[in-house]
Amino acid sequence: MKLHENYKDIPGWGMDADPENEPTYPMKNYTGDDHRRSDYPRSAPQPKDVEILMSTERPKISAVFGNTVPPSGLSGKIRRYAFSHSEDRYRHWLPLILADRINVVEGIVSDIKKGHVPNMFAERGWKMEIKHNAKGFALKVATTAALGIAMYWLLCGKKRK
């Protein structure tokens, strides 16, 4: 394939170069600051009062981050492992998915320890699932029951001699 020698021959080339054909012309007030839009005084960084897991690709902490649920327990250990690896690897993302699932179980156990029994039916949105996707919900329940029975049979079934 030959590169174009004259770029003006490429259809659509430079279509936005004409200042008279600027689509934002009547609305935009040009002040000359368009080229200086990233030169502004940065606000003070958010205080770091809990452990923040950082990517290996970024040298500095981001300006704003979540600090309501610091890493803890088994899920926290898994997250620390995940953040020790590059974001372009499965060993970063798959452990984070696993840590999310484990964190749900840790949250339920924590609620029960505090004397609060979670209402799983309401919190998981099963009422709306039944209302709007009854067939899919029934399939999920049947699949979960079949897997549960199979796991029980494999783990606690007849002892082989």
Describe the structure.
There is one protein chain. The chain has 5 helices and no strands. By secondary structure, the chain is an all-alpha fold. The model has no long low-confidence stretch (mean pLDDT 83).
Key structural traits:
single chain; 161 residues; mainly alpha; 5 helices
Gap between N and C termini: 71 Å
Portion in beta strands: under 5%
Percent in helix: 40-55%
Instruction: Specify the number of helices.
Output: 5
Spans of 5+ residues with little confidence (pLDDT < 50)? none
Oligomer: single chain
Short overview:
The protein is mainly α. It is built from five helices and no strands. It is elongated and about 80 Å long.
Helix and strand topology:
Layout: H1 73-83, H2 90-113, H3 120-123, H4 126-132, H5 134-156
Helix pairs in contact: 1-2, 4-5
